[in-house]
Every structure is written in structure tokens, then in C-alpha cells.
Amino acid sequence: MKLYIITDMEGVSGICSEEQVKRESPHYGPARRLLGADVNAAIAGAIEGGAAEVVVNDGHGGGFNLVLEEMDPRALYERPNGGLDLMPSLDESFGGVFCVGYHAMAGTLNGFLDHTQSSASWYNYFLNGRRTGELGQVGAWAGSYGVPILLVTGDQAACDEAREFFGPVETVAVKQGIGRQHARCAHPEVARGQIREAAARAVSLAGKIAPYRVDLPLTVRLEYYRSDMADAVARRPGTRRVDARTVERVVEDVRLLLSF
Question: Within a 13 Å sphere around the CA of 63, how many CA atoms are in the beta-carbon half?
């Protein structure tokens, strides 16, 4: 079985400050290694669980976060190519997707660093009327290929969100958010052991967990923080202005869910 792993960074074990996920911060370098260690644990578990091939997507901030020399050589590695190619090599041949290091959608109570794409401008994002975050976006994209989400690791709020969207998938809560800016974390070694064990179990869910699917045509609605943020987007062809801060677009392909 082929297994696809897509990563984020806010939900990685040991990350408890926003400074750790900013490239310009002195704390970012050590945080990259925390990310890599969580991903390596997921790779090891996937292979132990029976995955024959693992592809890892370095998904935080467009990629270039993983230190490849420190990554498990049994996996293959890629990064997203903008919003129109969220998971470049994912297709129907994969048995499942793991989301490693994820966070909850914008506006989630006690979600550590909760946001949807942009903490600076995106206020609410909806797919067919359902408020959705980055986990739901990944699930919908994978579901368009018939591929289910099997594992989510991150803070407790992200794990709760994953079960709400995807059902009884494997989850590993490596931290508990205390408001948005603080988290109480498990020790990284403990968290990695839990990730490895959950990843091995998750492989066996392939064929038992239904893919997350959204109906087409897909109505994508984005509410910005301020009206001027919506002004320029509202002028783009195919975009409807809903109100001062909100724009909407109807698309025929799930892979256009980030076409704003």
C-alpha cells in the first residue's frame, strides 16, 4: 500500500510558541528538527504497519522546513506547488493520508495557533456552507481521489476537529492549547512513540474509513478580516461579492478550493 503524509508545523510535539514556526526566528531551526522527528515517527509506523511506499509532503509555509539529511531514507519527499497543487503526487493509487503536525481551524476555542491559511487576513472559510479549516481542505482534496484520511497528529483541538470531519480515524494529541498562544506539551520522545504506534494502527484502517467527500459544484466562501482585503479579490473573474468582507466562488473541481 502507498501512504501519503502531509505536514504542518504548529501541531508538532514540543512546539509551544508562535516564534518556533517563523522562519526569521532563532527558534525556528530547532523547531525544524522537532518537525522532522515527528514525521520520521509517522514514517516508521507506516512501514511497520505494512505501507510499501511513503511519500512526505513538506507542507508548512510552502515547504523547505524538513532537514532532508535527517529524514528517514525509506520515504520520498515533495512540497506543495502553491494552492493549485496542494498534494502534487497524490492520486487514486494511495491507500490513505496522514496529517502530521496540524492545528485547528480559525476561531477554535483553545486551539493552539488556530488559523486557516492566513492568521493575518482569513477570518472564516466555508466549503458548501460548512466552516472548514486546513484539515478539511486536505480531506476534501484527498477525497476527490477516493483517498481517506487515516491519521491526524497535532493539538487536542485539531484531533477533535479531525474526528468531527473524518470519523473514527487515528489521532495523537501531542499538546493541549491554553488559549491561542500557549500550549502544554507532552515530552517529544513520548509523543513520537505515540505517533509511531498510531501510524502503524492507522495503516490497517485503509479500506475501512470512508474518504471525506464534498458535493460538486463546490461553493467556496471566504470571509476576510477587513473589507479592503476583499476588494481586490472581488474583481477577479468568477468571484461574487457577498458582503463587505466576504467573497464567494463556485468551482467544478475540488482542487480549486484554494483558488482565491
Answer: 16
